[in-house]
Design a protein that fits this description.
elongated, about 50% helix, 2 strands, about 80 residues, about 5% strand, two-stranded antiparallel sheet, mainly alpha
Length: about 80
């Protein structure tokens, strides 16, 4: 008889507080790297042309996408007081 498989989370919950900690697999690190690369590219392209508002909007959209990915691929959120 096989045991039920535990879901593999890309982003584990923090030990204390609310939220996620650093990724624990390559997929999570790839998401973080992609976020940082896209944000840096947006900064390089938008800020030199005085498009600060555009960069803020771009970064806000990227951050919302990152939060959605963390929400779907991370451990369920709740306040944690340690082990």
């Amino acid at each position: 008889m096989s045991s039920p498989r535990k879901p593999a989370f890309w982003f584990p919950a923090k030990t204390y507080g609310w939220g996620w900690g650093p990724p624990n697999c390559w997929q999570g690190w790839a998401v973080i790297a992609g976020f940082l690369l896209l944000d840096a590219a947006g900064a390089a392209l938008l800020i030199p042309v005085q498009a600060t508002e555009g960069f803020i909007a771009y970064t806000t959209v990227l951050t919302l996408i990152l939060i959605i990915i963390c929400w779907r691929k991370g451990e369920p959120l709740r306040w944690r007081w340690g082990k």
